């Protein structure tokens, strides 16, 4: 893609390229990054960038990327609106090359503490779980079955760059559980009621913690097959939490135990 100093046409091939990447399909390796923070984290992690499109305002990230050979394109506000799927443009978007790792790579920590998202369909939730996993010391996140693509622009924006800091995978539930057990991980299912509180389980052990979809949760078969079940204690009248909040609470307790806090 040749360097273009400024675009005014919403139909320019570069704009169309950004649109195609935003509509990412299975198997695509290009991802769209929106905002300086996410782009800076990608640069920090050594993620290859194909191009950056900006509205022309001064940008330290754009200057840094250009110095490393990334194609920088300036566009009008209308061009940015056409190229970016975000309702209110941040003024800078990029195309990067990123793909999920194999599921076994997300189970390979020592000691492993991986999060498995089963049919979690909201990409914002997937991104928020990845952010919490990175912040609280998980060794990997696996988007299982029909979970939203962790490489979609909404998930990447929700993760705020954390996608590039820890292993993030896609996989199938049965194969992932089998691989976790082969590696000596205990499989833990989150359930709305009837499970152990996070503090009642030894979370220093290697584990794969499964969280289910926003509405239905985990299937009965997945719960039955688990080694342990975990429930977040809540006051009477409240019977569920957002999946990202649930993940963060479990991860916080795991971190507390693993750091030996009282």
Explain this structure to me?
With 262 residues, the chain is of the alpha/beta class. It has 2 domains: 85 residues, 60s Ribosomal Protein L30, Chain: A (2-Layer Sandwich); 156 residues, SPOUT methyltransferase, trefoil knot domain (Alpha/beta knot), CATH 3.40.1280.10. It contains 9 helices and 10 strands. The strands form 2 sheets. Strands 7-6-5-9-8-10 form a 6-stranded parallel sheet. It has a 4-stranded mixed sheet with strand order 1-4-2-3, with helices on both faces. Helix 6 links the parallel strand 6 and strand 7. Helix 1 runs parallel beside helix 4, helix 5 runs parallel beside helix 6 and helix 5 packs parallel to helix 9. The longest helix has 16 residues. The protein is elongated, with a radius of gyration of 20 Å. The termini are far apart.
Give a nutshell description of this structure.
This protein has 262 residues and is of the alpha/beta class.
Coarse shape: elongated
Main sheet summary: 6 strands, parallel
What's the CATH superfamily of the largest domain, by name? SPOUT methyltransferase, trefoil knot domain
For the secondary structure, the number of strands is 10
Query: What fraction strand?
Result: 15-25%
**CATH fold node name of the largest domain:** Alpha/beta knot
- Give the terminus-to-terminus CA distance: 56 Å
How would you write the strand order of the largest sheet?
7-6-5-9-8-10
Calculate the mean pLDDT score and round it: 92
Number of helices: 9
Fraction of residues in H or I helices: 25-40%
Radius of gyration over C-alpha positions, nearest whole angstrom:
20 Å
């Amino acid at each position: 893609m040749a360097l273009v100093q400024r675009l005014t046409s919403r139909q320019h091939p570069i704009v169309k390229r950004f649109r195609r990447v935003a509509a990412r399909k299975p198997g695509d390796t290009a991802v769209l990054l929106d905002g300086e923070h996410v782009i800076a984290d990608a640069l920090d992690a050594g993620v290859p960038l194909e191009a950056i499109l900006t509205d022309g305002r001064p940008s330290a990230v754009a200057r840094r990327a250009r110095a490393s050979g990334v194609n920088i394109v300036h566009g009008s506000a209308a061009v940015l609106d056409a190229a970016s799927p975000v309702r209110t443009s941040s003024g800078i978007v990029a195309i990067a090359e990123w793909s999920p790792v194999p599921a076994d790579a997300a189970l390979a920590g020592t000691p492993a503490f991986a999060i498995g998202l089963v049919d979690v369909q909201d990409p914002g939730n997937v991104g928020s779980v990845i952010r919490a996993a990175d912040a609280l010391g998980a060794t990997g996140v696996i988007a299982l079955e029909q979970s939203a693509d962790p490489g979609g622009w909404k998930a990447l924006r929700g993760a705020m760059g954390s996608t590039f800091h820890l292993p993030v995978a896609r996989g199938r539930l049965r194969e992932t559980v089998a691989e976790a057990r082969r590696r000596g991980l205990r499989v833990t299912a989150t359930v709305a009621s009837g499970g152990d509180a996070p503090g009642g389980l030894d979370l220093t052990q290697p584990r794969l913690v499964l969280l289910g979809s926003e509405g239905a949760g985990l299937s009965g078969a997945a719960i039955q097959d688990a080694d342990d079940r975990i429930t977040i204690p809540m006051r009477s009248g409240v019977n569920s939490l957002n999946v990202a909040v649930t993940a963060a609470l479990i991860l916080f307790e795991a971190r507390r135990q693993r750091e030996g806090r009282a």
